[in-house]
Amino acid sequence: MTATRPDPTHLDIGARLSRRAQTMNASAIREILKVTQQPDVISFAGGLPAPELFPIEDVRRAADAVLTRHGAAALQYSTTEGHPPLREWIAARHGIPARNVQIVTGSQQGLDLLGKVLIDEGDTVLVEAPTYLGALQSFQPYLPRYAQIPTDEGGIDVEALGAVLREQAEQGRPAKLLYAIPNFQNPTGRTLSLERRRALVELTAQYGVLVIEDDPYGELRFSGEPAPSLYELGLAHAGGDPDQNHVIYSSSFSKTLVPGLRDAWVQAASPVIAKLIQAKQGSDLHTPTFNQMLVTELLPILPRQIETVKQAYGARAGRMMARIEEHFPVGVDFTRPQGGMFLWVTLPGGLDTTALLPRAVEHKVAYVPGSPFYALGGGENTLRLSYSSATDAQIDTGMAALGNVLRGALA
């Protein structure tokens, strides 16, 4: 009797993927960007730092200095934790030990690693409605259960947050984690008020909920007064002990220096950092040594660079808001950011910005529909606009074109 061999041409490769892999989705923004990459389309979709503001000559000089000073060590493998002088500089900003800082390859890796070490299947993760799409992508493979917290012009609605925390505790399934962007939030551009920051830290500490504070835009304030970070408030609540701080802080040099170096960091209590180190060893061993040394060499020019970026983004945001007021129809609302790279537009109910996008592209303008930023659905009548990399002429032409599209949709 001859055994029958399996026919490899009938092997269902897709069926061999893990359950976690099957939960992954492509970034809606990345997919939209493919559609809008026509050279004659003015795109306000991608949250891209302005390339003409990159400090290219400073980077060139810094690269020469790093190679001269460090030689082959700049091109060699390094420790997982990160370049010590860079970690020490970051730690000193919050008055914590360098051991509480982990360098990561972009904030996106930080979010992925935090998801890996913090989220078990079925854990409740609280997110803003709307929230950063990239965070949802990072957390989803770890199979959380999301709960959306409503937001308004002052950021997270802390009364709603308190109600959700009480309800979940009473049901015996307390939330584990809250993810928030308190400064110039992506996608809305909103900033969490100081009063709400304090309430949020107190509430989450009371209910034993860890907080991930994602702060890539915090340095880019062009109006208004700065507020202490959630991490700083959490540190004060913990009596100054970073190992008792329930707030985890994530930030990046991508929005202040250059995005292509992919240098970012996480600061957290030692048990979290210890597991991040192990998770990162399994991911990429360490963030590129040369890039970390390069960023360290560029730290003296960082204040000047931040000021340059703030002034440019402030002018572009102001121009976009003025053109929206000029061209958008009555009944359309929008946020007024005090910093960062985005503003949020809300259309009258019943309109669908995903359905409107092809019409906008026909008018040579593009945006990001708002619904992908909602973990549990919603926001069909919203959209995100980015002003960071737009020229004055693009803002003028693009807002006029988008206004025409919206007036046609409302007619």
Automatic annotation (TrEMBL):
The cofactor named in the record is: pyridoxal 5'-phosphate
Using the record's annotation, list all stretches that form the Aminotransferase class I/classII large domain: 53-401
Q: Keyword Transferase, does the record have it?
A: yes
Q: Kindly state which keywords UniProt assigns to this record, in alphabetical order.
A: Aminotransferase, Pyridoxal phosphate, Transferase
**Source organism of the structure:** Deinococcus hohokamensis
Q: Give the signal sequence positions.
A: none
Q: What is this protein called?
A: PLP-dependent aminotransferase family protein
InterPro entries to which the protein is assigned, alphabetical:
Aminotransferase_I/II_large, Class-I_PLP-dep_aminotransf, PyrdxlP-dep_Trfase, PyrdxlP-dep_Trfase_major, PyrdxlP-dep_Trfase_small
Q: Name one GO molecular function term.
A: transaminase activity
Q: Is this entry keyworded Transferase?
A: yes
